[in-house]
Amino acid sequence: QVQLVESGGGLVQPGGSLRLSCAASTTIFRYVMGWYRQAPGKQRELVAEIFAGGTTNYADSVKGRFTNSRDNAKNTVYLQMNSLKSEDTAVYYCNARLGGTNYWGQGTQVTVSS
Hints:
seven-stranded mixed beta sheet
């Protein structure tokens, strides 16, 4: 069982930045660590993921603005979000995936509004 705790969400103006953190309860070096988001009335979607070897994958809507990174020594992953837009408003969830097993955090709200 892996417990994931997100932090760093909040209210930010358009064009601003936030950094989300996801702390895991166990070592994560074998896991694919991902960030998903869900806006009201929409399905949960993949934002970014980082594989065990460090390769990253991003949704087209966030490429060039978001950076996903991991610190295996701290069992933590990060999502640096720059140039935020109103359409980035959502609850952001951390995900740990190993084979067919998925673990989810409780989510953190990100609101982009002036």
